[in-house]
Amino acid sequence: MMIVLASASPRRRELLARLEPRFEVQPSRVEEVTSKKRPSFMARDLARQKAEYVALSHPDDLVVGSDTIVYFRGKALGKPRDREEAERFLSELCGKWHVVYTGVCLIKGGETETAYALSRVKLRKMNKEEISEYVRGGSPLDKAGAYGVQDGVVEKFCGEYENIMGLPVGTLAGMRLWKER
């Protein structure tokens, strides 16, 4: 049995390697769409979709799917479509608290288990020029909410740091299918 990470994210690879150094990576190619309304359900549903896609070609392996959502004032912020949207996300989030949800889904032998982690985050205040410079660097374009916790833009947070990065390893390590691997 292999462990298969259903993600192209280098951050998720780095985080999974903290728990298990040997695993394969097969990015999921699903369109990230969900009908769920609550952010915890959205994150788990999208993680499940990713894991199910990869599990089709790995029926005997343990597949790990994950999805992160930034939730602010009743809106789910995923990855920005372009630089303009990234700047808008950051302008809205800077200096304010918001919530990061990461859903995790494990699939092995037809059995599915889901969980999620929640962290509260406050970005530091940045002016328009600082936001534009950060976005020009390219880092925000592949991250939910248009920022990376590791990029020095977070002022404070409560909860699991790895959740904000995209894979809550504490949550994952506590899941039954992970323990039984």
Automatic annotation (TrEMBL):
It is found in: Cytoplasm. GO terms for cellular component: cytoplasm. This is dTTP/UTP pyrophosphatase. It holds the Pfam family Maf. GO terms for molecular function: nucleoside triphosphate diphosphatase activity. Signal peptide: none annotated. CDD domains: Maf. Keywords: Cytoplasm, Hydrolase, Nucleotide metabolism. SUPFAM superfamilies: ITPase-like. It comes from Candidatus Caccalectryoclostridium excrementigallinarum. It catalyses: UTP + H2O = UMP + diphosphate + H(+); dTTP + H2O = dTMP + diphosphate + H(+). Nucleoside triphosphate pyrophosphatase that hydrolyzes dTTP and UTP. May have a dual role in cell division arrest and in preventing the incorporation of modified nucleotides into cellular nucleic acids. Belongs to the Maf family. YhdE subfamily. Its main location: cytoplasm. The record marks 11, 68, 150 as: Important for substrate specificity. It comes from the Bacteria. Its cofactor is a divalent metal cation. The active site is at 67 (proton acceptor). One of its GO terms (biological process) is nucleotide metabolic process. InterPro entries: ITPase-like_fam, Maf-like. Its EC number is 3.6.1.9.
